[in-house]
Design goal:
Elements lengths: L2 H20 L4 H10 L4 H22 L8 H24 L2 H33 L8 H16 L4 H12 L4 H26 L4 H21 L5 H19 L1
Helix pairs in contact: 1-2, 1-3, 1-9, 2-3, 2-10, 3-8, 3-9, 4-6, 4-8, 5-7, 5-10, 6-7, 6-8, 7-8
Length: 249
């Protein structure tokens, strides 16, 4: 690994850690970077997942003030997320690598569409929030569990999916829901990362570079992320995602 590649992976980890806290699409930065440097898709995915775990945790800790009073919600939704993440990670390890390479471009395309429609989706959810309720119903649990499956398998834009489900389910402040989303994303990444660490081929050099970058990015994202202009950030993620699709195809 050259110095340029190492710096590129570290920088991608920092950007992903920050973006994950704010939007939840950091994998669309790190995964294409690793693909561009020539790593196999599955190796890139599992190494990326493990590397981003500390950044996800740092982001969740940064939102601890918004998490006040959400213990019951977090325990219930956390259990559904962990169940889904375990299933998703198992699918990644049991399905052939060719299946992952074939499926992921479609996942990335879905993630890019979600990012592009996020402003309209956010406006719709804000209008709906007045009719949302606090009771955790079966539809919410199924949606959260399904998002956990997606997170365990690949996970790009899982934060947008999770935030949409939470906004439709609870009448609460958006920043509090974003804090909930960060905790659930951290749980999904943590469990999938533990499974990958023991059962998958991990490139630990990649992990060692992404981890410090993701921690720095996650901390900065929790502290200053709300001030970032969303349009340039969205454009950057879409551009990187398109490059990833081209490389994979």
């Amino acid at each position: 690994m050259s110095l340029l590649h190492a710096l590129g992976i570290f920088a991608a980890g920092a950007a992903a850690g920050c973006i994950n806290v704010i939007v939840g699409s950091g994998t669309l930065i790190t995964f294409p970077t690793l693909i561009a440097f020539g790593y196999a898709p599955v190796v890139a995915n599992v190494s990326n997942t493990i590397g981003l775990v500390p950044g996800s945790i740092a982001g969740a800790v940064g939102y601890r003030r918004e998490l006040s009073g959400q213990s019951v919600r977090l325990r219930t939704l956390g259990a559904a997320t962990l169940l889904g993440a375990a299933a998703g990670a198992t699918l990644l390890l049991t399905l052939p690598a060719s299946a992952f390479k074939a499926i992921v471009p479609a996942f990335i395309a879905l993630a890019l569409v979600l990012i592009l429609v996020q402003p309209r989706l956010g406006a719709m959810l804000r209008r709906h929030r007045g009719h949302a309720h606090e009771r955790i119903g079966a539809a919410t649990l199924i949606g959260v569990c399904a998002t956990g499956v997606y997170a365990g398998y690949f996970g790009a834009a899982q934060g947008i999916l999770m935030l949409a489900i939470l906004s439709l389910s609870f009448d609460d402040d958006l920043q509090r829901l974003n804090g909930t989303k960060n905790v659930l994303a951290a749980l999904a990444n943590l469990l999938a990362g533990v499974i990958f660490a023991f059962a998958a081929h991990v490139d630990w050099a990649i992990v060692a570079l992404i981890v410090p970058g993701a921690i720095i990015g996650g901390t900065l994202g929790a502290r200053y992320g709300r001030r970032l202009p969303p349009a340039p950030l969205r454009a950057l993620i879409v551009a990187v995602g398109i490059v990833a699709i081209v490389r994979l195809l």
